[in-house]
Amino acid sequence: MREEDAMAPVTSWASDGIPSVSYALTDHTGRVLASRASHTVYYSASTVKLGVMLAAVLAAERGEFGGAGLGAELECRHEFVCGEVGRGHDGDDVVAETFVLDPDDRDAAFPPDGASASVAELVRMMIVRSSNEATNVLFDRLGAARIAEAFALCGAASTRMERRIGDPCAVRAGLTNETCAADLVAIVRALVTGAVTNAEHAEWMRGVLAGQEHPRIGAVLPSGVPWGSKSGDVPGIEHDVAFIGDGDARRYLAVCTRGFEPEQGREVIRAVAGALQTVAG
């Protein structure tokens, strides 16, 4: 392979092929310590799942799952309604088209159809190993409006989740999921500080993020530094957002990239995180 071919920008449905790198680093109060194009909007990939987690916690706090809270059980499934169920001109229900995720997007460890999992378990699957099936089950239970409300409470004005993961009908209808680096740090800060939830749930969400199995930023942090994160990727897109440290020393870092091969994008994230460690402290 020629060197120029190996380094060619990646073009996909989520990437226009123009390489782009954005980041935002804040302190524990949200004060910006370093940034670059932090309000540039990208396809969110799996980072948008942070809003689903927050919406689930808020629903539990409001009693929408009954007395079981996050322990409420939902039915697991691998097939989902494609787009929205409508009604015909005569008022009859329209037979809904359904979809299953592409093989590369499936969670091999997701429970079988008809099994039950608690909301808390589904959130962990969604964040820790980025289960798309868990995300879609929660999305259907919570609804797009609840998730939009969660992002609004964090002040994440450029972030939206309008559709299920992998929903081809919604994609054809122009619905998308988007975010930016500035929003991602605001979301994670709101999650882990208890700014929009009670302290118990904030601690629980910190623990969920700390279980991340696909670290980018966390991979270059010194041993012993507490951290938690949510990464996301699709062809041409690689993102990560993390909290780093504890208490007043805690920092929040998000890095968003577009137009790179997977390992190139991940190396960009690691390089930015490594370079900013002196700022992060």
Automatic annotation (TrEMBL):
The keyword Hydrolase applies. One of its GO terms (biological process) is response to antibiotic. Keywords: Hydrolase. Residues 28-255 form the Beta-lactamase class A catalytic domain. One of its GO terms (molecular function) is beta-lactamase activity. SUPFAM superfamilies: beta-lactamase/transpeptidase-like. It comes from the Bacteria. Pfam families: Beta-lactamase2. This is Serine hydrolase. It comes from Humibacter ginsenosidimutans.
